[in-house]
Amino acid sequence: MSEMIELKLNEQPSKKRQYLLLGGIILAMLLWSLTAITFSAPDDGGAKIAGNIIKGILSPDMQLLWNFTSQGVFYLLFETICIAFLGTIFGAILSIPFAFLMAPSVVPKPVYLITRFLVVVIRTIPSLVYGLMFVRVSGPGPFAGVLTMSLTSIGMVSKLYVDVIEDIDRGILEAMDAMGCTTFEKIRFGIIPQLIANFSSITIYRFDMNLRDATILGLVGAGGIGSPLIFAMNSYRWHQVGSILIGLVILILIVEAISNKLRAKLVNG
Amino acid sequence: MRKRTLTLPNGKVVTEQRSKVPLICAILLVFIIVAMRVTHFSFRTLATNGHQFFVILGAMFPPHLDFLNRVWQPLFDTIKMSFLGSLLGALVAVPLAVLSATNIVKSKLLSGFFKLLLSIMRTLPTIVMALIATFIFGLGTMAGTLAIFIFTVSYVGKLTYEQIESLDMGTFEALESLGLTRLQAFRYGIVPQILPTYLSTSLFSFEGNLRYAAILGYVGAGGLGIILNEQLGWRDYGNVGMILTVLIVTVGLIELISQTARQKLQ
């Protein structure tokens, strides 16, 4: 009996060499990357500044937090939600043609390879650069933020859409063909119902991410809560930073909880 | 709304559920209109001014090749920052994920606390962490590495504890009943089940971090962002084009390697 077990055990391919190689590569990369870290700054100033920052953030500026005018946290958060929402909707709409052009089962190889390359390029250019380009189009403000978000959403959303498109059950389409359905009917009753749940789920997920990324837009003056936040940080007003951060964190946690519920419902029917 | 009732041939009456689609569409439409008002969105501006977008894009071509020499050092800094941050973050994420998993830690309070900690860490924008870090550690790669580290801990930590919680605990119990200690049972019952997903999550987060690290320099946290900010400030778009080209090629290569590795892991 024990011989049999041992025999079975020895049949298993040994992964020791693979793991050793992997470990070696990681160790070498680690040593190489350690050279980038220079402990130049931690003089006596650092700890004191850190203390001040934490103290400031933990005692937030209540006046700013409960201010309901267009300067207050609530309005800024609302504006951020609007930017992320519109950006996600437009991004999702723009992603649909991209996704179909990226699907190997829909278009020939050269077309999907070119589209994939294009999407990698769109995804890799930092959102800041887009922000600057769009500020030229619309002037500084939330409009530029919406345009930037629409463009940056394409990368991830279309990539996830492709997986859904590739998973379509073609049997249904063949059955509809056999029944004599027109192309419109095939799309309306055969394709859309198969895609819509997963597409919505992906879009909601992206909305979550866009809300989180919206802070970056503030750096180039593209609206939302980012610019007052970074402005407050650069002028060391840590109480204000605290109140903005608290609002942002609570908002994102709430939205995340709702979106998780929605997505679970969508995917499980 | 009226429900449609149908009578089947065998006399049974069924009611058709009303579709919720019109309601959802209406709510979405209202939201879109409100959001367009708030953000001053106008298609007319987009149509009349849209070509302005391509002005900068056009100025990036052709990229200035002689700027390439100045790109290497920040590029390597970016790669080092994101690698170090991702590696350390992924390692620290493991104990935190184990402590947040309700099926390993019996105390609800403890696991809830660590879950909340991971959530809050994930919510804080990375760019804010980087900016705070530059105030504490000074300008440079250290601040960027710290920001990436914190993000990776929360991201990998969350996905790993979700994975642990969805595990089949039967193996663990069986191993414990064979007389193994909890630690041994964890090593042989749980680690092999989560290892592939954990590694592929870590690789995926490394890819994402590389892209993110390129922005962090904008607040002075080291890497490509610094020269990107500098050249954008001087409106030297040929140089910006060069930086972006290098970034796209590097990210593309690393993504290719990591994707192959992740496919092997699955």
Q: Helix and strand layout, with pairings?
A:
The complex is a heterodimer of chains A (269) and B (266).
Chain A lengths: L1 H10 L4 H19 L9 H15 L3 H4 L7 H30 L6 H16 L2 H12 L3 H25 L3 H10 L3 H35 L8 H9 L3 H31 L1
Helix pairs in contact in A: 3-12, 5-8, 5-10, 6-8, 7-8, 8-10, 10-12, 11-12
Chain B lengths: L3 E4 L5 E4 L4 H19 L3 H7 L3 H7 L8 H33 L7 H16 L2 H12 L3 H25 L4 H8 L4 H35 L7 H10 L3 H29 L1
Antiparallel strand pairs in B: 1-2
Q: Are there runs of chain A of 5+ residues with pLDDT below 50, and where?
A: none
Number of helices of chain B: 11
Please identify which CATH superfamily of the largest domain in chain B we are dealing with.
Answer: MetI-like
CATH homology superfamily of chain A: MetI-like
| Helix-strand string of chain B | EEHHHHHHHHHHH
Number of strand segments of chain B: 2
CATH class of chain A: Mainly Alpha
Biggest sheet statistics of chain B? 2 strands, antiparallel
Q: Could you give a short account of the major beta sheet of chain A?
A: none
Mean pLDDT of chain A: 85
Write down the overall geometry of chain A: extended
**Compute the gyration radius of chain A: what is it?**
25 Å
As for the CATH topology of chain A, it is MetI-like fold
CATH class of the largest domain in chain B: Mainly Alpha
Helix/strand/pairing category of chain B: mainly alpha
| Secondary structure tally: strands of chain A | 0
Content-based structural category of chain A? mainly alpha
User: How many alpha or pi helices of chain A?
Assistant: 12
How are helices and strands ordered from N to C of chain A? HHHHHHHHHHHH
CATH-scheme architecture of chain A: Orthogonal Bundle
Largest interface by Cβ-Cβ < 8 Å: A-B, 64 and 61 residues
What is the compact description of this entry?
The complex is a heterodimer of chains A (about 270) and B (about 270). Chain A has about 270 residues and is mainly α. Chain A has helices at about 1-10, 15-35, 45-60, 60-65, 75-100, 110-125, 125-140, 140-165, 170-180, 185-215, 225-235, 240-269.
